[in-house]
Design goal:
Distance between the termini: 32 Å
CATH topology: Jelly Rolls
Helix content: under 10%
Shape: globular
Largest sheet: 5 strands, antiparallel
Order of helices and strands: HHEEEEEEEEEEE
Strand content: over 45%
Strand order of the largest sheet: 1-2-9-4-7
Radius of gyration: 15 Å
Length: 154
């Protein structure tokens, strides 16, 4: 994780064609909400598989000072980007992440939400450096945020 890890990880994810068969054992589907399955975790980073049914979305959140690389491996998700303004959250627009097109969320500027508009399922491979121990969840149209922890909702 030393040197220019941001460019190194982005380059690796750009070049690596991830065989979907290698990840299918981590796919978990739930009709009510997206799922997060840990593939690997150590003191420096963690890798998660995130599965979205059509119509599912994450909360509006950030990674509490961690960097994240998002690599769609099946389907596509829209990433809605936000910033905290004088009167609460404001939209910065949206981009599409399609299979094979990694994205980097840098520390401190990454309030966002992922949405699978369908019609098909979507899966992303997420790399976090350092592992996520908490993140901030924001209320749309507000300046309110709460801290969330990994695991079931509290």
């Amino acid at each position: 994780m030393k040197h220019d890890a941001n460019n190194a990880f982005t380059g690796i994810l750009s070049r690596y064609a991830i065989p979907i068969e290698d990840l299918q054992r981590y796919f978990r589907w739930n009709n009510k909400h997206y799922t997060r399955t840990c593939v690997h975790r150590n003191a420096d980073f963690e890798v998660l598989v995130i599965c979205y049914e059509p119509g599912q979305a994450t909360s509006i959140h950030d990674y509490d000072s961690q960097n994240a690389w998002i690599h769609p491996v099946m389907g596509e998700v829209e990433v809605e980007r936000y910033a905290m303004g004088e009167h609460g959250l404001r939209s910065l627009g949206a981009d599409w992440l399609r299979t094979g097109s990694p994205d980097l969320f840098r520390t401190g500027s990454a309030i966002h939400r992922f949405v699978n508009h369908g019609p098909a399922r979507a899966v992303t491979l997420n790399l976090y450096a350092k592992p996520l121990s908490r993140w901030h969840v924001y209320e749309a149209g507000s300046s309110k945020a709460r801290t969330a922890l990994p695991g079931p909702r509290r």
